[in-house]
Amino acid sequence: MPLTLTGRLICATEEEAAIVRAHLPEHIRLTRAEPGCERFEVRQGADPLV
Fold first, then answer.
1. Fewer CB in 10 Å around end: N or C, the chain?
2. Using CB atoms within 10 A of its CB, is residue 11 exposed (0-12), middle (13-18) or buried (19+)?
């Protein structure tokens, strides 16, 4: 049975958002490498802190 999770990461400051952006490629790589992971997407919304 497929499972879909959605969420939002809300940063308090641009500095926090920069930390997220810096670590995001590795997080995506590790998540996609997990057994059973068929798809993992991260999208930037209009608000740069979300």
1. N
2. middle
